[in-house]
Amino acid sequence: MISPPMTAASGAGRRAAFRHELYPYQGEAAFLKGAMSFIQDALTSDETVLVAVGEDKQAMLRDALRSTTGQERVSFVDTAALGRNPGRLIPAWHDWIAKSVSDGLPVRGISESPWGTATPAERGELRYHEWLLNRTFADSPAWWLLCPYDTTTVEPAVLDSARRCHPYHLTEGAHGDNLAFADEPFTFDELSSPCDPDQPLIYGAGDLGRVRAKVTACATRHGLAGPRLQELLVATTEVAANSVRHGGGSGTLRTWVSDDTLICQFDDTGYIHDPLVGRSRPTPQQIGGRGLWLVHQLCDLVQIRSTAEHGTTIRLSTALP
Prior knowledge:
alpha/beta, Rossmann fold, Heat Shock Protein 90, seven-stranded mixed sheet, 35% helix
């Protein structure tokens, strides 16, 4: 479990520039009513709006906006281009917000995560993403993000987690403080047990070739080849090299397939302090820190679990053809 303290700016006792608001709703009609009210209020206030929702809800909102004054200030962002990895969402929001702020307009956003189609592992990382938003944007230019959750389809545990990490909520048409918000460390779901059918590989300095060989052997047995295999080999090499440099000089690699997904898991004795590792775009002037960013761009899912007591586990998932 990574349990970094929340920053003071995200605490309940201080108004942050970033307004992170939960919108529980029941069904499509309620979604449309709440989202359109939010958008119309933004347009009346001369703000720009970025909407990141599924294609069906995009179509609903586009249709409802056709006769709305100021509709040109509403943009629909393509989250599908990011793939299914929630670790890519925060840098994407940074990019979208930076572009809007450069146009000189205050910003609002609407973001609905794909809870209905996400795998259990993806849902765990989506929960973490929601928690990280408060920390990430604590010192950003002021903006307001509305997060709709359909209570008819979202699991109660997911909704309970959402209530704890949104300082504000929209209920019964009113925006206000969320008394269920808890300024607390994040608790991860437990990772499923690894089930490597082959012998786990203990690697150290000089063993990156053996790491690539093990990954290649498992991948080719299950039909993964070509560019996707090459991308995975780059990602696994980065993680193994980090173990050697920062994780005690060695690590253990396990590979297996589950639900049409190739999984590569790396364990070492290092400790990753930064909960945003790999989720912030490296700057051109930055020295180091690009490895896990690259891994997030190359893999369909990245799960990181790190504590000072138990070391670090990094699990990479790649969908099989």
